[in-house]
Amino acid sequence: MFDFKYFTPTKVVFGKNTESKVADLIKEFGGTKILIHYGGGSVVRSGLLKRVTDTLDAAGISYVTLGGAVPNPHLGLVYEGIELCKKENVDFLLAVGGGSAIDSAKAIGYGLANEGDVWDFYDYKRKATGCVPFGVILTIAATGSEMSDSSVITKEEGLVKRGYSSDFGRPKFAIMNPELTMTLPDYQTACGCTDIMMHTMERYFTQGGNMEITDALAEGLLRTVKKNAVILRDDPKNYDARAEVMWAGSLAHNGLTGCGNDGGDWMTHKLEHELGGLYDVAHGAGLAAIWGSWARYVYKNCLPRFKKFALNVMEVENTGTDEEIALRGIEALEDFYRSINMPTNLRELGVNPTEEELALMAKKCAIGVGGEMGSARVLNEADMLAIYKASV
Ligand code: NZQ
Ligand code: ZN
Questions:
Q1: What's the pTM value of the predicted model, to 2 decimals?
Q2: In terms of CATH architecture, what is 11-180?
Q3: pLDDT tens digit string along 327-381?
Q4: Does the CB atom of residue 254 touch ligand 1 within 6 A?
Q5: CATH code of the domain occupying 184-390
Q6: Crossing angle, helix 212-234 and helix 239-253, to 10 degrees?
């Protein structure tokens, strides 16, 4: 077991109609002039944005709005948001939406609280010394950005998708009403479940420091999401399943399932970020498409964990060699992906890269991780290329 720090300062307000508490929460955290930041319009169509602005109007809190955060959110809108907030003297940000709106708000917050170009943080040139306080009303269970320290932004020039992590990037509050996720397309629900599981699996497939309690939490979380993803496939309005998945999404990425281990592998995410940057695919689907190829490439280097995963999460038969059990676990997870209509390779993802594009992604990925990275197995550019090729 390794030493660890666990910091989850976000106040979570969970349940039906909790968005009605937004004005009280903003006041509690000192917001007086708000930027409401959202995505492509689902919150307009669902009526959520109107309910939020009505609540702020009634409480006498002034605000400006900025929509347009796209999946794989763009740096250009971040710059726009920073300028708008400066002009309007905004002192608190409210993201209403999914990971993209939240991450874009985080970047705006960094840009306001720090001098210079905000991209520097995502380009690993320097570290932020603060972030304007912000809260979240979550509309999709997926990234865990509502409690995580991360934000992921795409620079349009060169299609470079990069993440930046800092404790300043943790929201002051997160309002989570599972009912708000009921308007999601089935595909996005499944993408979300995949991402949630992957945040736990990235921390699970490691080379050391594993704690029994952390493993038990991780395996329980994975089994819960696996079960409820199938319930939601057949019954998308099932409140309890929505709630299970939503809370799992936060716990999967607030650090809980990383306590005591070596921090995790994260290479499936890094490989996916290149797909998201270049082809603008949904993050969860991109992860599902690449994971099997990654797993088959690394499992022999991390056999005890793959065997444990196969038995305790995928609940495969405990017969044969460790390698056979591990491979059965990988196949079982791919069968699960297919059962919720997630892709298990790039073709099923709808992406058909040329040899040059595969090489470009491997190169950008290697640059993005500083040469090599991974815990289950350390991967360099040649390994990354081999995994991309195996996933075509
Ligand atoms: O943009 P709108 O119109 O709101 O539509 C969105 C979008 O099309 C739609 N949607 C969201 N809630 C809805 C809804 N449609 C109907 N009803 C609702 N209630 O769903 C689509 C996806 O939304 P998005 O916010 O892009 O999804 P997600 O939460 O999966 O975020 C993805 C982004 O987060 C990054 C990903 O790389 C990607 O850029 N990540 C962020 C992380 C973090 N900050 O900790 C960690 C993750 O690993 C991930 O990398
Ligand atoms: Zn993710």
A1: 0.97
A2: 3-Layer(aba) Sandwich (3.40)
A3: 999 999 999 999 999 999 999 999 999 999 999 999 999 999 999 999 999 999 9
A4: no
A5: 1.20.1090.10
A6: 140
